[in-house]
């Protein structure tokens, strides 16, 4: 997906293949229901209720079928805590190889989720622990799924200080690691995965605009496909991500879409995507 420079094998002329931004759909599951939650309010505590923008009895599989109908690829199903296995399985089976899955993925269940129909498994907390990355776990996971081409690293992140770098956060985005998201770490981690998924945690679910500096970083520095999620609320925001990310950063929109109770027309977003990718 990032722009690549190729050369003609006959004459040596350089051929530039420009990256084209895509809209990546999502299905977030909480207690077995499709929901849109303000990410920063998630907690492991049973007594804490996250701030919910949207909840529906509509099955996750219906959303998956809609994404398949609209030929949207590379979307993700995220299981936010326990009680979501059946709904996630149903979504994956409704759109085989069209969706990625994350939430509680480890080396004992990753292959099982691929067998259910996921194109990729998404992982954070299993490989980021005790404040840093466990490369032994990461390499083992790559081996378990048969290669980096089936793995997405979730580098969802927050800043510790206003002027500092972004750091990967784990465990439903509650805990900071000491692992920064930088050009160097993106380059290094690209050896182990096919794509990155990056939620801008501070704005995720708030429909308050994107984290522009994070999108710029991803567009400038990611050597592999990368999807940004967080704060997008309009077609203008899509154009802004396209500009700042130089066409190399895909975008997920959740709470702002009318299919999740928001005001942004899902069909308009799909039309924008198809025009860009025609």
Verbal overview:
This protein is of the alpha/beta class and 278 residues long. Helices cover 27% and strands 26% of the residues. Strands 5-4-3-6-7-8-11-15-16-17 form a ten-stranded mixed beta sheet. It has a three-stranded antiparallel beta sheet with strand order 12-13-14, with no helix packed on it. The protein has a two-stranded antiparallel sheet with strand order 1-2. The mean pLDDT is 91.
Summary, kept brief:
Helix 1 (60-69) packs parallel to helix 2 and helix 5 (183-189) crosses helix 6. The protein is an alpha/beta fold.
Helix and strand element order: EEEEEHEHEHEEEHEEEEHEHEHEH
Mean pLDDT: 91
Structural class: alpha/beta
Share of β-strand residues: 25-35%
Number of strands: 17
* Number of H/I helices: 8
Considering DSSP H and I runs of 4 or more, what fraction of the residues is helical?
25-40%
Can you tell me the residue ranges where pLDDT is under 50 for at least 5 consecutive residues? none
Strand order of the largest sheet: 5-4-3-6-7-8-11-15-16-17
Q: State the separation between the terminal residues, measured CA to CA.
A: 15 Å
Largest sheet: 10 strands, mixed
Work out the radius of gyration: 18 Å
Principal-axis shape: globular
Q: What oligomeric state do the depicted chains represent?
A: single chain
